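pipeline stage [seq->struct] | target=Cytochrome C | organism=Sulfurimonas paralvinellae | residues=111
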Amino acid sequence: MVKILFIFLAVTIFSLTTADAAIYKGQRVFIKKCLKCHKDGQNFISKYKRKHWKKLMKHKGKPLAELHLKSQKAKKSWKYFKSKRYAKKSKHLKQFLMEYAKDSGNVPACN
């Protein structure tokens, strides 16, 4: 009985942690919100390693938002980075950026 309970808990925990963020949702966010300024998307994502993206996406992407809010070039995106929508979707964007980082070995498909 203990083994069955342990297996059930392990499967539940695994499914909860993997279902938290979706790469395809992050890609959608990147296409809608980031390609306006970062036109060379694939090269831009693979410009940095996972460690760098992880650092920028800490605390629901707050460091990345601050970076954009300080830049006059990113003025078009200020409204988005101040919104609750950004904080909500940042986990998906983080997953996408981590998946296709320089040291990941993955290349995003053309959609």
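stage status: PASS
auto-comment: Residues 22-99 form one domain. The mean pLDDT is 84.
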